[in-house]
Amino acid sequence: EIRGQRVEVRLNQLYALQEKYLTLEVEVDPTAAGRQRALATVELAWNDLGSHRQERSRAAAAVEFSVREDEVDDAVVAEVMVSVSEQKAAVAAKEAVQLRDAGERDKAEALLKDSAMELEQEARRYDSPALRSLSKKAKVSSDSIKSDRDWSRNRKRLRSEQYKLERQQSY
């Protein structure tokens, strides 16, 4: 839920060895180079099934401004950007299925081709086998999305992959 400058998210039933993340895109007013700005405070509360106690944690996120492109590039966290790219791919796949269902086959194909190309660029940039694999899947999907042959099976596969990405499932 978003209320003004506050975002509240509930992640239920998170178990050991599971990882969940929240991706937020924020717009920040320009600020002088070298200055920092606090962006967020994250507060977590959970029940530890092992100790049967409620646990809490708190962390802050900030940004630093720069006019130097090399400083900006050095500050990028590749793992985060890979996750962002995965979520963008999930959105593209979902939209492509909706376009295909609405009879907009050419638009669906173009969207998946663009997604495949962007994923391949990001895979190279962040040296990510996961994004490389997603790029190949998006390319295969773009090649088959216009065909009526096996559309039901392809649709189910696309929706399944998109669901796993949205839910951050690796299984």
Topology at a glance:
Elements: E1 2-3, E2 6-7, E3 36-48, E4 53-64, H1 69-75, H2 78-101, H3 105-126, H4 129-144, H5 151-166
Helix pairs in contact: 2-3, 2-4, 2-5, 3-4
Detailed description of the structure:
The protein has five helices and four strands, in the order ββββααααα. It starts with a strand and ends in a 5-residue tail after the last helix. The model has no long low-confidence stretch (mean pLDDT 90). The strands form two sheets. It has a two-stranded antiparallel ribbon with strand order 1-2. β1 and β2 form a beta hairpin. It is of the alpha+beta class and 171 residues long.
How would you write the strand order of the largest sheet? 1-2
Major sheet: 2 strands, antiparallel
Number of helices: 5
Span between termini: 28 Å
SSE pattern = EEEEHHHHH
Number of β-strand runs: 4
Please state the CA-atom Rg, rounded to the nearest Å: 19 Å
Helix fraction?
40-55%
pLDDT average, as an integer?
A: 90
Short structural description:
With 171 residues, this protein is of the alpha+beta class. The protein has helices at 69-75, 78-101, 105-126, 129-144, 151-166, and strands spanning 2-3, 6-7, 36-48, 53-64.
